[in-house]
Design brief:
The protein is an alpha+beta fold and about 220 residues long. It is built from 7 helices and 8 strands, in the order ααβββββαααβαββα. The N and C termini lie far apart (about 50 Å).
């Protein structure tokens, strides 16, 4: 019991490979690094200007990601009701198959709240066509509660940012906007400063693209 309490308080981070390097990296950028309750996992808190963000790494919280995952969360200045989802094509295809098998050919007649929002949204919101996806058509799928907004968001600097991120069936990538929060989720077996910096920079570009989109639209 005492060991468990120590781990919860963040005093036993030695199980994470490369912890010293991660600590030095976070301190050099004036960010806060701390361990979490999981045997392996950590959280980094930081700010980009006035915007707070968080990087989380640890055991996967989604069945479609095996092993460990990286999650990056940030607040956005968008309407609270806006919901959007961008994910790599392989994952979208497998999710659509799972939804069909479970809720169309299976015994369930409706999607309940225990189903991850990614899967619920696949049947709730309109998807972008291959023509609307433009340069992302081969690698990604996208859908939103407000399709015109999503089209304009992807038409800017976000598309090359997504295209440059490594994705595959083994390393899915999900980008969600809900309740004024952006969340990027992807597989990452072992964290290191270089990989975390790449993902963090991608998150910054996504936030900037969202801010520009909202300022220019005036909606």
């Amino acid at each position: 019991m005492l060991d468990t309490i120590k781990r919860w308080l963040g005093n036993d981070p030695v199980q994470i490979q490369g912890w010293s390097e991660l600590s030095s990296w976070a301190r050099s950028k004036q960010w806060t690094l701390r361990a979490v309750r999981e045997p392996e996992g950590f959280v980094v808190d930081g700010r980009s200007g006035s915007t707070a963000w968080r990087v989380e790494w640890g055991p996967s919280q989604r069945s479609y990601i095996q092993g460990s995952e990286l999650r990056i969360r940030a607040e956005l200045t968008v309407p609270r009701e806006l919901q959007a989802l961008v994910l790599n094509r392989e994952l979208m295809d497998s999710m659509e198959t799972a939804v069909f098998d479970q809720y169309v050919e299976g015994v369930q007649t409706r999607i309940d709240t225990t189903t991850p929002p990614e899967m619920r949204w696949l049947v709730m919101f309109p998807k972008l066509s291959t023509n609307e996806l433009r340069s992302l058509r081969d690698g990604y799928g996208a859908l939103s509660s407000y399709k015109p907004w999503l089209q304009q968001w992807l038409a800017g600097s976000l598309s090359p940012t997504l295209a440059a991120l490594p994705t595959s069936a083994e390393r899915p990538l999900v980008l969600m906007i809900a309740r004024r929060r952006l969340c990027l989720r992807t597989a990452l077996a072992q964290p290191d400063p270089a990989a975390l910096d790449d993902e963090r920079k991608a998150r910054v570009r996504m936030q900037q693209a969202t801010r520009r989109r909202w300022l220019t639209s005036g909606t």
